[in-house]
Amino acid sequence: MTQLDRRPHPRLFAAYRILAIAVGIFLLVASIDWLLVHLVSDSVPDLWWLWMIHGYVYMAYLVVAVPFTRKAGWPLSFVLLIIAAGLVPVLMFFVEHHVSQRYKREHPDIYGPVGSPA
Predict the structure, then answer these.
(1) Which of 10, 23, 55, 67 is most buried, judging by how many CB atoms fall within 10 Å of its CB?
(2) Angle in degrees, CA 67, 104, 12, rounded to 5
(3) Distance CA 6, CA 68 (A)
(4) Whole-angstrom distance, CA of residue 88 vs CA of residue 8
(5) pTM of the full structure
């Protein structure tokens, strides 16, 4: 397999980013709601359906993220971090940023040098 074959398609990268941000938002909002319901007041509406949406979006995220990271040739430990990021509130935003920077740095032929003006 050549280096070009191992490069994830830019559309796969875009799908990863969209799903990662969606998973992060749903997890953060659902976690804040849980804290408000259980620790602050019972009068706050329980948005239980957010957990269901998070679960479905997280499954779609896994379907995209695992092949994306494996095709990029990243180590299994990094893949496991990306998987775990969808389960820890706020962590997803940091991991998504790190993955994006790493992908852009490893593929300057697609995105140009990281940090350069668009």
Answers:
(1) 23
(2) 30
(3) 10
(4) 26
(5) 0.83
